[in-house]
Every structure is written in C-alpha cells, then in structure tokens.
C-alpha cells in the first residue's frame, strides 16, 4: 500500500487509517525477538534476532544496506504471522516498489507513509510515535535522513537542540515498541555526526559489498559488541538479490 500524505491534515489522516487498521485486525503474535531466517546474519546478533524496541541501522546513505536488512525484517515478520502488518515512513521517497516485491514482502500488509517534503523534521518523527502507539505493526521503519522542508528544519535548529529532541523521541518510541512487542528500525546515514549516540537497544553499522554485507554491532543494550563480520548475500532468504542501493 503506497500512500502519500499531503496537507496539514496528514497526521489526522494517519490516525484515522491506524484506527481503522486496529479495529479490523487482531494484534500480531509476540516473539522474544525477530529472527530474519538468515542464519549467518541472525547468528551474529546478540539475541539471535532483532530485539523489540528501537534498532538503528547505520549505513552510508544509498550505499549501505539498511534498506535491505529492514525489508528482510518485514518479510520475516509477515512470514511468521499471517496477521502481521508492518509500516514504513519514507520522507526521502527512495523506497523502490519492485525491490520491495523482490524481497518477498507482501505489499497488501505494508502501510507506507510518504510525508510531504515541506513537513518539519519533528512532525515526521511524531508520525512514527503515533504509529508505534497504535500497536498495529510488528515492524516500523523510519528513514531518518531529513530531506526537503525537514532538512531545512534540521539546519535551522542548533545541532545540540536537534539531537536532544531526537533522543527524547527515540526514548518514546522505545517505550511504545517494548509495550507493543514491536521493532522500530531507524535508517540513519553513517556519514552524519551527532553530539551523542541514540539510546537504542541495538545499533548495527552496515557496509555493502557487491555480494556481501559487512556488519558491526556498534551498540547493544547489554554491552555485547563484536568485530566486523561479513555476511554473504547468497544465503539471504529471498528469491532475488538487491541492486547496489540502500
């Protein structure tokens, strides 16, 4: 379901759609963690899968692998529970529909929001909070690279103020995700610097190679870090390999 939100009523429209979704669907089954059924990748994760809460996928924008891992998580959630819905907030408008299908994702259970480029950066984050509060989604993906009006809003504020606001919103998302048994994936640009790391449950630093992806656990809530490991894409549970894109 590809959707573009426009105008000042966009948040109200998201709320109405979420209410309708919650009313006609049972909550998804809860699992201790979300394994991707990608044996080599799951093996390097501290819990054998992505934890409930907020997970940061940090990679060079358009050159990393965050999108690929996020789609694998959505595919896994949908495959494990036929009732599971997932959501993707795409302010950069870079999510490629054929690539989503190639990843094995069922589009009719994927709720995609594309905020107008004029939206303030904080407004996009508030959308994510509302979606997490709805408890309707097993996985929520937020592309955290500001573009358009959001980028301008990002530049206008001082960096410390922006980072503090970002930290508060991550903590809100973490509480709501833990309460709802869902996983929120933040796609961040590894080339951008911030005054402090985000308070996430897990931070994966990704780098894409032609036939593999290099993964480093940059942060874990229990301090379980590790060396950089290379995971071959040929073992990924999908019918097709992704092109060289985020």
Structural notes for this entry:
With 246 residues, the chain is of the alpha/beta class. The protein has helices at residues 10-24, 39-44, 66-80, 97-102, 121-133, 148-156, 159-180, and strands at residues 2-4, 33-34, 50-51, 53-59, 86-89, 110-114, 139-143, 183-189, 202-209, 212-220, 229-232. It has a single domain, classed as Rossmann fold, CATH 3.40.50. A hairpin with a 2-residue loop joins strand 9 (202-209) and strand 10 (212-220). Helix 5 (121-133) runs parallel beside helix 7. The strands form two sheets. Strands 1-6-5-7-8-4-9-10-11 form a nine-stranded mixed beta sheet, sandwiched between helices. Strands 2-3 form a two-stranded antiparallel ribbon. Mean pLDDT is 80; it is low at 4-8, 147-153 and 239-246. The two termini are 21 Å apart.
Describe the secondary structure blueprint for this structure:
Layout: E1 2-4, H1 10-24, E2 33-34, H2 39-44, E3 50-51, E4 53-59, H3 66-80, E5 86-89, H4 97-102, E6 110-114, H5 121-133, E7 139-143, H6 148-156, H7 159-180, E8 183-189, E9 202-209, E10 212-220, E11 229-232
Parallel strand pairs: 1-6, 4-8, 4-9, 5-6, 5-7, 7-8
Antiparallel strand pairs: 2-3, 9-10, 10-11
Helix pairs in contact: 5-7
């Amino acid at each position: 379901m590809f959707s573009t939100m426009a105008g000042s009523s966009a948040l109200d429209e998201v709320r109405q759609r979420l209410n309708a979704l919650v009313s006609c669907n049972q909550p998804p089954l809860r699992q201790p963690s979300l394994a991707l059924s990608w044996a080599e990748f799951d093996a390097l994760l501290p819990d054998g899968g992505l934890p409930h809460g907020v997970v940061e996928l940090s990679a060079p924008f358009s050159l990393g692998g965050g999108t690929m891992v996020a789609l694998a998580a959505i595919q896994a959630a949908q495959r494990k529970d036929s009732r599971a819905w997932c959501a993707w907030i795409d302010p950069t408008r870079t999510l490629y529909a054929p690539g989503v299908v190639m990843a094995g994702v069922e589009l009719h259970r994927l709720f995609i929001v594309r905020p107008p480029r004029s939206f303030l950066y904080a407004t996009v984050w508030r959308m994510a909070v509302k979606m997490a509060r709805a408890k309707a989604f097993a996985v929520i993906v937020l592309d955290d690279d500001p573009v358009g009006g959001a980028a301008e809003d990002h530049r206008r504020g001082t960096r410390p103020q922006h980072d503090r606001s970002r930290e508060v919103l991550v903590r809100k998302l973490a509480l709501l995700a833990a309460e709802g048994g869902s996983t929120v994936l933040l796609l961040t640009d590894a080339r951008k610097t911030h005054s402090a790391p985000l308070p996430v449950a897990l931070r994966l630093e990704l780098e894409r190679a032609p036939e593999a992806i290099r993964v480093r656990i940059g942060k874990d809530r229990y301090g379980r870090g590790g060396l950089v490991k290379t995971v071959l894409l040929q073992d990924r549970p999908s019918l097709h390999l992704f092109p060289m894109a985020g």
